[in-house]
Structures are given as structure tokens and as C-alpha cells.
Amino acid sequence: MFASIYGMTVLGLHAHLIRVEVDVSNGLPSFEIVGLATTAVREARDRVRSAIRNSGYQFPLQRVTVNLAPADLRKQGSGLDLPIALGILAATNQYRGACLDHYVFTGELSLEGSLRPVPGVLTMAISLYRDNQQYELETTRKTKELSLVISPENLAEARLVTGLETHSTSTLKQLIAALEGENDFEDERILRVSLGEEIARGNQVDWTDVHGQQHVKRALEIAAAGGHNVILVGPPGSGKTLLAKAYSGILPPLSESESLEVTQLYSVCGLQPCNGSLVQFRPFRSPHHTITKVGMIGGGRDLRPGELTFANYGVLFLDELPEFPREVLESLRQPLEDRELTISRQSGSITYPANVSVIASMNPCPCGFFSDPARECRCTPLQIQNYRGRISGPLLDRFDMHIEVPRLNFSELRNASGSQESSQTVRKRVIAARERQWARLGPAKTNAEMTSKESKEFGRLTSSGEALLQRVFDGQGLSARAHDRILRVARTIADLGDSVDIFPEHLAEAIQYRALDKRLQL
């Protein structure tokens, strides 16, 4: 006796259609699952056996073999519990309804037979919708689109993909009854949250909460407008952390495609509540400096994403940058350049997005008071050199802007609140500058993503600007990458000023944000 059911598994940010083939034959009672299944999938044997019995059906006392095709694709997660159970019931003639070839089933089964939610349903729904649109499935199925059957807790998430037929049910027994026509699915109307709706964030810092530091705010506005990576250098208590938290508030809102991608990522990792809403805020991730390399860029047995990917389309804040392990910092070099990373292991390889804005902070020395007029530095020159040497030159080149954050004096701290701009006001200027970049470079592309060819094409300088850049390039011994970074930042400054050309004053302001190239002597 044989039955075939469709299921799905998620690897990275991609879902794959799985054909669950069940064969029940005479022989000693056994239950085997083959087809490159992980531990979570193999453990389905115990869950499925108990769920079938506790739902009022008979588990066959025969040889049960389940094949998960394609056999060379790694299967993970507990979402294949439901199609395996349905396949066994269909193969033993305990299901007598219509053909199941037009459904895709996913869900974890409890021992009592109820359906539990699984992560990654949004990714499954997107993949299934695209398959239905492109007709890339088997020829026997082209006559009808596939429908997705999931648990009620996952229904709101799946309904974010309009145009895909989705159904839900609470238990295995109710699902069989619905498929046989005895009752209806437990579908309910899900209202989609408008993309324009603001979701309040309790921990969001407004631009007005940061007193003083006007030149630092100006630099961060430039960074937000062009998508540039920034490193903040200053003594303890100068406001570096507060500025980094306020930075996410001046970034443009997520577009619909960006919001869907962020929600999809959080869904795969089980971080998104199943409330039927898209993520509306840009992620802000601030890992501790004790984080491992796997925790930062991802990996492990299941090739899970790391903090770098969780911050996609948002902000990755690296507080106390020199305190991070050297291998963690060096692992960021390639992803920050390519804005994506590929994790390769023996079990396979997965590419994750890494389109982030990195804000890093550090003290000027181990004690934190080097060049501080209010406090005396207690560090020796060798200690300062070793501390700064923890950040390699190639990594420092990945930061477009190096900003010094001085300590505020008493009068600046007490009198700065009167003339503050709100995050909303600054965000409007940032959005206007981004729109100029999109018109020039293409949708959703910023100046920080310009290639060397684009930097030369859109970063043409006057003769005086060329002379200024050459003088700085030779005097500070800048790298070719630092040269391109200066042109990109100057282009952003011109965009903020609604200027088509890059004038010497734009270039001079961009150059001052590379002061650490010489001062840190890395």
C-alpha cells in the first residue's frame, strides 16, 4: 500500500517542496524515515505514532517506510509531522477522501494529535505562491494550484501572501474530517496590518534626547542618508551609545519588499509573533563583545543566521569594538563589502543577506581618557598602541566615516535642549537624499553601495577638489578603498545639499571624517 503527500522544509531563507512517499508492507513492525532527514525529522516517528493512535486511528503493525524526496536535499524541522501522518492514514485506507495532490501540509503534531505552529511559514507561503505562478511543478499538478494547510497559529502569517489559498485546522482528526467533506476548515478572516501603520517601539530614542554633539549628529545624518558605516571614538559617557540608538530613528522606513524580507527572516528563526503583521521597524541589534564568530555571522549544525543577518536593512551596533575577539571582527570584512555572506559546511551552503548599517564605538585608549581635557590618561604608549592595534587596517577601511565624540561640558549639557531637531525632521532630509540616489543608481541603492566605476562617474571633482584629495591621499597614506569611501561620502553630502556636483567644501567635510586613518596609525 502506497501514498504520496506534499510537505515543505525550509533551508535558510528558501522553502523547498518535499514529496512524502509512504509505503506500508508486510513484515516485522518497523517505522523508518529515509531521505537525508535531521534528528528533528527522525523524531517524528514517535510523535506521529502517538498522534495517530490518540486521534482514534490505528497505527499499522507492519513495515512502514517513509521516503522524503528529493533524497539529496537536507530535511529539517518538525513541519513534516503532518504529511507523514496523513500519508500513513492514506496508505492504510483510513483516509477515504479526495486526492490530496492539490494540498501542501506542514505542521508539528503533539502526542494527542493537535497541530502546533512551525517557524518559516511565511517563507513557505512565498515559495508556494511563486511555484503556483510559474508552473514549475510536476506535469500532473499543473491543472490546479497548490493550497497550504497549516495550524491556526500560523494562518495569519501565511495570509500575508495574498493570492495563495490557505487553510487551517486544530487537530489531525478535524483535518481528516475536513478533507473528507464532513466539516469545514477552521479558516477565519485575517486582517492585514497596513504598511503605513506605525508600530510604537518602547526603546526608541529620539534625536531630541541627545543633548549637544551637533557635529556628530551632522555626521550621522550623512551616514543615514548614504547608508555609510560609522565608527565613533570618544571617552566614556560622551553619548556614543545613545547616539547609536537614536540613529535608527532617522533612517527611512522599510519599503514593502524590505519589510517582507525582514519578516520572512524573523519567521524562519522563530522570532516573529504569528499576529499577521509585517515588521515595520528597522532592526537594531547590539551583540555583546563576548559573542562568538558563529553567533555573529551564523553557522552551526543547522546553518542558522547570526546577528549580522538579523540586522539586515537595519543597524548593527558594535559597542566597545576593540573588545570583540579578533576572529569575529575579521569575519565581518567580506560581508560588509559584499552585503551578503555565504556559510559553507559539509552539509551544504546557505547565502544570507547582510545589508546592514554598522555603527561601532570605541574608547581612544584602554582607560578611555586619552586626549580628554577633563581626565588624565593613565595608559602607556605601548598600551594605547596595542589597544588600537586590535582593529586591523582592512577592517577600518570598511568604515566610511570615523567620528570623534568629545565629552560635553556642563553648559553644553544643560543648554543644548532648546534648539534640537526631532528624528522626524531629520528623517525627511535623509529620505530626500535617498530619493536622489535612487533616481541616479536605481531603486533601494545608496551611495555606500556604489562600485568604483560608479564612484568615478558620479563623484567627478573640480581641479581644486582633485588637488585637495591628492594632498590628503599622499599625506595620510590612504588606501584605494579609503579613496573611494571619501568620494562616496562627499557624494552623499552633495545629495543632502541638493547639489548635482561635488564641490570642494563637500569633499573637505568628507575628508575630515577619515581623520582616524592617520591618528590611529593602524
TrEMBL record:
<dbReference type="Pfam" id="PF13335">
    <property type="entry name" value="Mg_chelatase_C"/>
</dbReference>
<dbReference type="Pfam" id="PF13541">
    <property type="entry name" value="ChlI"/>
</dbReference>
<dbReference type="GO" id="GO:0005524">
    <property type="term" value="F:ATP binding"/>
</dbReference>
<dbReference type="InterPro" id="IPR003593">
    <property type="entry name" value="AAA+_ATPase"/>
</dbReference>
<dbReference type="InterPro" id="IPR014721">
    <property type="entry name" value="Ribsml_uS5_D2-typ_fold_subgr"/>
</dbReference>
<dbReference type="InterPro" id="IPR020568">
    <property type="entry name" value="Ribosomal_Su5_D2-typ_SF"/>
</dbReference>
<feature type="domain" description="AAA+ ATPase">
    <location>
        <begin position="226"/>
        <end position="409"/>
    </location>
</feature>
<dbReference type="InterPro" id="IPR025158">
    <property type="entry name" value="Mg_chelat-rel_C"/>
</dbReference>
<dbReference type="Pfam" id="PF01078">
    <property type="entry name" value="Mg_chelatase"/>
</dbReference>
<dbReference type="InterPro" id="IPR004482">
    <property type="entry name" value="Mg_chelat-rel"/>
</dbReference>
<dbReference type="InterPro" id="IPR000523">
    <property type="entry name" value="Mg_chelatse_chII-like_cat_dom"/>
</dbReference>
<dbReference type="InterPro" id="IPR045006">
    <property type="entry name" value="CHLI-like"/>
</dbReference>
<comment type="similarity">
    <text>Belongs to the Mg-chelatase subunits D/I family. ComM subfamily.</text>
</comment>
<protein>
    <submittedName>
        <fullName>Competence protein ComM</fullName>
    </submittedName>
</protein>
<dbReference type="InterPro" id="IPR027417">
    <property type="entry name" value="P-loop_NTPase"/>
</dbReference>
